[in-house]
Write a structure and sequence with these properties.
This protein is mainly alpha-helical and 305 residues long. It is 65% helix and 9% strand. The protein has nine helices and three strands. A three-stranded mixed beta sheet has the order 1-2-3. α1 packs antiparallel against α2, α2 runs antiparallel to α5 and α3 packs parallel to α5.
Amino acid sequence: MTKNHIRRLDLSLIITLVFMIIEAVAGFFANSLALLTDAAHNLTDVIALGLSLYAMRLTLQPAHSGKTYGYHRAGIIVALANSTTLVVIALAIFYEAYRRFISPPMVKANILITVGLVAVVVNLVTALLVKHGSEGDLNLRSAFLHLMGDVLSTIGAVIAGIFILFTGWNWLDPLVSVLIGILILWNAWGIVRETIHILMESTPNDIDMDEMLSEILQIEGVNGVHDLHVWSITQSMRTLSAHIVTGDMPISKGAAVQNTISTLLSDKYGITHATLQLECTECNPDLLYCDFNHHNNEQVKFNPL
């Protein structure tokens, strides 16, 4: 993550904050839930961008004895926080939309259309500023999805305003808000699912463990593999640890085996941090994945109280 990413986020934050205030005022005077909804979503964008900036600055800090992996997980925690705020906002939108379906207020369509068109431009600009680098960074992607959600929701608000102007159907305003809320929930669920997957130290979805194990076993000098673990620090930082069973060989030959395995893992699976322990005798040939509960069964007794 570079300082250029931080500058882009800084600019997006300022633009979003200024426009959020303008849109909230316009929504109040136009009596438009769609505009007020989008202003509320912009508020979550301001929070999301602020948290993302904080996390990015943290990840630039070096690792130390207390944080041996550094602060890279800060971005994952922020992504989870951002997606959680999206869920809360969506639920609030559904509640307010329900109230307005029961008793639809008059909406000033001309203000809704004008402000909505400006919002489309502003949100698109800020989203494009954040897009660079978001493909491989969950923190940036959560911020980008916040902003792209705004682009689509403001387009919906403009369409609703046009229909209200010509038909007088004020119920279209809360209907658009419901659609916006569904979109927000959809985006939030994708981020929540992926952040929890990483925090649970699950195997990355695109890694076929059976295939990877088979390829490692085909490397000359490798007789077996056990205590195999693959997990992610962040979306783009993957790590692996494993015990590699070899024959009785000199250290130089063992280092060559390690290097071959590391090259395979890096080139094909994107695993750039691999800890490989070579050993001549396999302690438990049937245990591919280390079971910590198995090791502690004799020592730990469950106490329901």
